[in-house]
Amino acid sequence: MIKALILDLDGVICDTAHFHYIAWKRLASEYDYELSEADNEALKGVSRVDSLILILQWAKKEISPEQFEQDLLRKNSWYLDMVEEMVPKDLLPGVGSFVESAHKLQIPLALGSASKNAQTVLTKVGLLDAFQTIVDASQISRSKPDPETFTTAAELLGVAPNECIVFEDSLAGIQAALSGGMRAIGIGKPSDLPGAELHINNLGEYNFADFQ
Ligand code: BG6
Ligand code: MG
Questions:
Q1: Pairing mode, if any, of strands 183-187 and 133-135?
Q2: Is 19 helix (H, G, I), strand (E, B) or coil?
Q3: Is the C-beta atom of 170 inside 6 A of ligand 1?
Q4: 48 C-alpha vs ligand 1 centroid, how far in Å?
Q5: Nearest to 198 by CA among 179, 184, 209, 180
Q6: C-alpha 180: how far from its chain's center?
Q7: How is domain 17-83 classified at the CATH fold level?
Q8: How far is CA 29 from CA 24, 48, 70, 76, 107, in A?
Q9: Could you give the angle at the alpha carbon of 83 between the alpha carbons of 80 and 89, nearest 5°?
Q10: Which atom of ligand 1 is the closest one to the Cα of 170?
Q11: Active-site residue flag, 15
């Protein structure tokens, strides 16, 4: 029996996955590397530090530890400049009605995000109060595809992993949900998100009649 729904943030609730891409692409160009959409697929759900490690590998570039820290900060400030402009209408299609349906049916919602900016983004789009539990990068030590983000959310909600459905736009996130013993619904194409039991384009396509 399903008792809770756990949502990823970037690319599921709002289009911040695209902002991450723009900011990483700008940084990668400084390493003379053109970050592609396919590269970006592999960065979805991956922590900030691990993303930069991957980009440096692809660019075959070595930088000092000081430069590494500085570049993480610069990327994040470019990202936050875009987040700053966000308003509630920047929610992805169907998010408002999805949250409303869950509340009406009294299904607890949790957020499970790899981002350190999760609370900032949720505040900008007016959804900070929509979740019973918010788990972000500050509360976990192992990032997706490790299941810790989602198992922590389930623990905080007081439900078992197999009583949760996770909604994710990243392969790392789908893998995290499945290895945590949860069900996983992919927001995106089956070719990008193998393993998910169902693929939809956005939360608005989720049919609460199929909930159990
Ligand atoms: C994930 C995104 O949600 O958070 C990744 O899919 C991002 O692209 C990661 O790198 C970390 O986010 P932040 O906001 O802490 O840099
Ligand atoms: Mg995501």
A1: unpaired
A2: helix
A3: yes
A4: 6
A5: 184
A6: 16
A7: DNA polymerase; domain 1 (1.10.150)
A8: 9, 17, 16, 16, 44
A9: 175
A10: 6
A11: no
Query: Is the CB of 143 inside a 6 Å radius of any atom of ligand 1?
Result: no
Name the phi and psi angles at 2, rounded to 5: -85, 130
How do the domains of the chain map onto residue ranges? 4-14+87-211, 17-83
Ligand 1: nearest atom to the Cα of 116? 15
Amino acid at 125: V
Find out whether the beta carbon of 160 lies less than 6 Å from any atom of ligand 1. no
Residue recorded with tokens 């891409």: 21
90 belongs to the catalytic site = no
CA distance 82 to 84: 5
Q: 4: helix, coil or strand?
A: strand
On whether the CB atoms of residues 108 and 4 are closer than 8 A, the answer is yes
pLDDT one digit per residue (tens) for the chain, 212 residues: 999 999 999 999 999 999 999 999 999 999 999 999 999 999 999 999 999 999 999 999 999 999 999 999 999 999 999 999 999 999 999 999 999 999 999 999 999 999 999 999 999 999 999 999 999 999 999 999 999 999 999 999 999 999 999 999 999 999 999 999 999 999 999 999 999 999 999 999 999 887 66
φ, ψ (nearest 5 deg) of residue 184: -135, 130
CATH architecture of 4-14+87-211: 3-Layer(aba) Sandwich (3.40)
DSSP code, position 130: G
Question: Which atom of ligand 1 lies at the shortest distance from residue 51's CA?
Answer: 10
Question: How many other C-beta atoms are found inside a 10 Å radius of the C-beta of residue 76?
Answer: 16
